[in-house]
Amino acid sequence: MAYEIPVTQARAELADLINRVVYGGERVVVTRHGKPLVALVSAADLERLEEVREPSDTQVTITSVAGVHDTAATSARPEHHRFGIAAEHRGSEPS
Predict the structure, then answer these.
(1) Considering the domain 3-41 in this protein, what is its CATH number?
(2) What three-state secondary structure class fits 75?
(3) What residues have CB less than 8 Å from 77, skipping those under 6 apart?
(4) 34-78 pLDDT, tens per residue?
(5) What is the pTM of this model?
């Protein structure tokens, strides 16, 4: 559970809050009018949060690109395979 503190109080106690986060392993949520505004977390916590988020984004992208590549492989020109291009724009026929 995170420690909550109003923004006006956090301003006055910033150095203490930083010490609590870094050395005490606490997470601090700064509030305004009782609503969460920002959170103070250690750099190590932030790094772990970013590591957890990134693989899922990367996995979705890889899956999507792999699916497009598989369906286009039979009809794409050789240079498209070389550059990983899975689609081609063909202009409209003149009327």
Answers:
(1) 3.40.1620
(2) coil
(3) 88
(4) 999 999 999 999 999 888 876 555 555 555 555 554 544 455 555
(5) 0.53
Terminus-to-terminus CA distance in the chain, angstroms?
67
Convert 62-86 to b/e letters by CB count within 10 Å (16 or more is b). Answer: eeeeeeeeeeeeeebeeebeeeeeb
Entry field: residues in the chain: 95
CA angle centred on 47, ends 17 and 30, rounded to 5°: 30
CA–CA separation, 10 and 16 (whole Å):
9
Residue 2: predicted pLDDT: 85
Residues 6+ away with beta carbon under 8 Å from 4: 28, 29, 30, 31, 36
- Domain ranges in the chain are 3-41, 45-83
